Every structure is written in structure tokens, then in C-alpha cells.
Amino acid sequence: MATQRTATAQWSGGLASGSGEVALGTSKAASGLGLTWKARTEDGPGNLTSPEELIAAALAGCFCMALSAGLEKAGTAPDRLEVQATSNFEKTDAGFRLTTMDLRVRGTVPGIDEQAFRKAADGAATGCPVSNALKGNVDIRVDAALE
User: 105 near 140, Cβ under 8 Å?
Assistant: First the structure.
């Protein structure tokens, strides 16, 4: 049976002048996360989010788990992994699109060299479920290095 997770969103008003909120329904870990078009397309106030930021968070979390699993399976479990995912939301000829996700991966992993770490990171980028959901639509670029 599939595991299901829910989130909700509400919006009031037009696109440019309106605003909304998102909430994590299953876990209830976050609610009242404010949304506006301006926050989505410009550098707006720090207390608003966007769908692209939420996708970046999902990818960063999923990628950490996939990389940890791959490293552990290879016998080199990480002491620490840190992933920063940056979404790039752009206006293209086809309209606004999430075009790329840049993953900056830093790890402390005993018993592994830089090349093996980068290979494991590339494997995680193609193997994590969120990456697979984005595959064919969003270019995922990985910058991985040991600390």
C-alpha cells in the first residue's frame, strides 16, 4: 500500500495582488506558510515561501536520505551530510517554469575519497524519488565535495 501525505493551500484575490498559505496536513509540522506572487518571482520579505522553495526543501531532504543510504550500503556511512537545494524559477518562451535545481552537497564521510563521494552523490541525484518526479522536466545539477 502506498504511503500518502497531504498538504493544503488556499488563495485569496488575483495573482499579482492576492496572497495565500500552505500547510503540511499529515505531519502538521508547518502551517500558515504565506505565499504571494511577488515572493515567488522577486526577492521579497523573508517570511513568505513559494512552491519552488517547498520543492527545493523536498529534494534536499530526499537527496540526503538517498545519499546516506547509498553510502551506508557501500560500507561508508556518513557522519554528516548537508545539502542546499536552489530552485531556479524563470520566465521562458513557454511561460514560467522551474528550470533547474542546483544541489550543493557537503559531507563528512570516513573512509571514502572525493571521487567515490561524487559518484555516490550522482547516484543519489538520479535515484531519489523526488529527483525521479522532476526527471525530464527539471535539470538537476550536483556540486558534491567532502569537508
Answer: no
Say how many C-beta atoms besides its own lie within 10 A of residue 75's C-beta: 8
> What is the Rg, in whole angstroms, of the alpha carbon atoms belonging to the chain?
17
> What single string gives the DSSP state of each residue in 54-103?
HHHHHHHHHHHHHHHHHHHHTT---SEEEEEEEEEEEEETTEEEEEEEEE
Q: Which helix (H) or strand (E) holds 18?
A: none
How far is residue 144's CA from residue 128's CA, in Å, rounded to a whole number? 16
What does the pLDDT average to over 75-79? 97
Q: Rounded CA gap, 36 and 9, in Å?
A: 12
| Reported pTM | 0.93
Quote the CA–CA distance of 27 and 113 in Å, as a whole number: 37
Label residue 46 by pLDDT band (50, 70, 90).
Answer: confident
Mean pLDDT over the full length of the chain: 95
Output helix, strand, coil percentages for the chain, rounded to the nearest 5: 35, 35, 30
